[in-house]
Write a structure and sequence with these properties.
Blueprint: E1 3-4, E2 8-14, H1 19-28, H2 40-53, H3 63-73, E3 84-93, H4 94-100, E4 107-111, E5 124-125, H5 128-131, H6 134-172, H7 174-182, H8 191-205, E6 214-222, H9 223-233, H10 240-256, H11 258-261, E7 265-268, E8 274-277
Parallel strand pairs: 1-5
Antiparallel strand pairs: 2-3, 3-6, 4-6, 7-8
Helix pairs in contact: 2-3, 6-8
Bound molecules: flavin-adenine dinucleotide.
The site of flavin-adenine dinucleotide has 11 residues, from helix 9.
Length: 283
Amino acid sequence: MKIITIPTVYLLSKQSIQQGELDRFLTDHGVSWSSDSSVAAELVTEIAGRVCYMSYAKPRPGGNAAYLGHIKEVAHGSVFEHAVWSFLVTGVSRSLTHELVRHRAGWAYSQLSQRYVDESVAEYVEPDVIASDPDLHSIWLEAVTQAHEAYVKLADKLFEKVKLQKVMEYLRSPLAAGIMACNPLNLEPDRETRTAIRKTARQAARSVLPNATETKITVTANARALRHFLEQRGSVHAEPEIRKLANVLLEVLVQDAPNLFGDYKRTPLPDGTFEITTDHPKV
Ligand SMILES: Cc1cc2nc3c(=O)[nH]c(=O)nc-3n(C[C@H](O)[C@H](O)[C@H](O)COP(=O)(O)OP(=O)(O)OC[C@H]3O[C@@H](n4cnc5c(N)ncnc54)[C@H](O)[C@@H]3O)c2cc1C
């Protein structure tokens, strides 16, 4: 059984600017404009914001950083909704994703199914406060191991039970009489039925899996939604595992789009995580 303490974030996709189309729009409207940023997320938000007042002709000095900084100051955050990233997040617990999916506006999720995917090879996420204490760690490990073993046992027994039920159902069906006449030994369920049996077994057996069970989730979110998440989940009041995820996401986002996320400060906390704060919350 593998134990995990750090989330992994894969930046799956991000936007690109279609320069030809931008040039066509500017030409069609008789203006020339260019940005000092080459980051699609920073550009698309500035372009979108400038549409509101058609302010391409005489931009104020300071370039993209100043423009997006002003958007933060006046909290005109809807233009930040045009910048979008997709992340694949692994090495996080089911309790973390239960909190993550509460973020609704501007988010999309696709999470590993415990009904279809076998959890008998599951990994578990251990909270740092437990991992750093040998006594707590051994209590945690014993509980997780027991739950894991119960899951494997239940899944096996449920599989046999449901399979038998399906075979009995099949034997009682009018179709069976004809097929059995051709091949009396063919009692093996077909592929679709096998999937249904496994799903029925796993969806019941998973009821004993702990919150610590590792999961994987693909998330797509826009810059405004991500800022809201960073502020709520990077807070000192947030749960440490999701605060760690917020910090990993912030690192990726600052690197990719500093003009959108560079205003965040990270302050070390006694538990080893970092509090995330900004002078421009709730943009
Ligand atoms: C430290 C902490 C502790 C928490 N504790 C608990 C807890 O004990 N129990 C619990 O159930 N949850 C808890 N939560 C979750 C919290 O209540 C929110 O569900 C979660 O943080 C998502 O916030 P949100 O609704 O603002 O985000 P989103 O759903 O992403 O919404 C973003 C913003 O859009 C607007 N919005 C979204 N949906 C609507 C709507 N339907 N109507 C009007 N405006 C809308 C709001 O302005 C909202 O702030 C906790 C969160 C934190 C950070």
